[in-house]
Amino acid sequence: MEVFIQQLPKIELHLHIEGSLEPELMFELAKRNQIELPYKSTNEIRAAYQFDNLQSFLDIYYQGANVLLHEQDFYDLTWAYLLKCKIDNVVHTEIFFDPQTHTERDISFDIVVGGIHKALKRAEHELGITSNLIMCFLRHLSEDDAFSTLELALKHKDKIIAVGLDSSEQGHPPKKFERVFKQAQEHGFLAVAHAGEEGPAQNIIDAIEDLKVDRVDHGVRCIDSESLMVSLAESKMPLTICPLSNTKLKVFESMSQHNILQLLRRGLQVTINSDDPAYFGGYMTDNFLAVASALPFSKRELAQLSLNAIDASFIEKQHKIQLKQKVNDYLAQV
Ligand code: HPA
Ligand code: ZN
Predict the structure, then answer these.
(1) Which residue's C-alpha comes closest to atom 3 of ligand 1?
(2) Domains of the chain with bracketed CATH
(3) Which helix (H) or strand (E) holds 134?
């Protein structure tokens, strides 16, 4: 099973680039940029990664991002993640970035996008990994702040395919961002949103109805509403599920309690993703391995997760056909 998972062509749809900042790179960038870290060693950093819930993670995650200052830093961060993709046989990735985490610290939007975009283009040429970029609004900040961020993004519309919504779900329901999502969609951006990670199933319904999202990030709390489960299966609305994130942030007590296989078998369009791999203990292969060792997945079901992700991705139809062929060929020869 390990070799099967390692070599399975994978597609990632839920990855926060700031969440791929490994402690080693954090230290290197802190030194390069003369920033004082509250840790003495990478071991000490890793030891601090014990979370009780989403907020306890977010506090540490935003602090880590403080070492990112220059275009080169964003480039190095993104390139390091893409090298992990190569090892894990990730053939296409759609990555999030949080512009407000940086513009709040007076780092320009152009620097952030510039560094990320250059690394993504290099990966396409040198590693054969294709990608799309998604800009997330931080939901703990105001609607006005999100509108200003959208304004900054317009000049980069050729590099950003969609808007998203992340950060603290509790107390910041989808409705708060209805108008900014509508405006983003009028400009031609696609839309995704984190919903039903810690928050209730109603947030999933609201993300679909009020924000008109093309897919739901996490969405695992859908299990609390039978009618929502039925409509998600019928509409084939994709859920980008992040198993190691969910256990680290105590959304599920253990991997054997995770509902991903149950949702898959109910016909929901579920996918596997790594979310913030530097903080949650693993990249794509690790996430597949974690679910496959805790739950009775068949090889066909694991491959179905890749096929679901291809359908749920924002790539062109012809490219989807090629990628599906790759997965089906792989499945046929094992
Ligand atoms: N949820 C919400 N916000 C986030 C996450 C997450 O899992 N990761 C990074 N920002
Ligand atoms: Zn996320």
Answers:
(1) 167
(2) 2-333 (3.20.20.140)
(3) strand 130-138
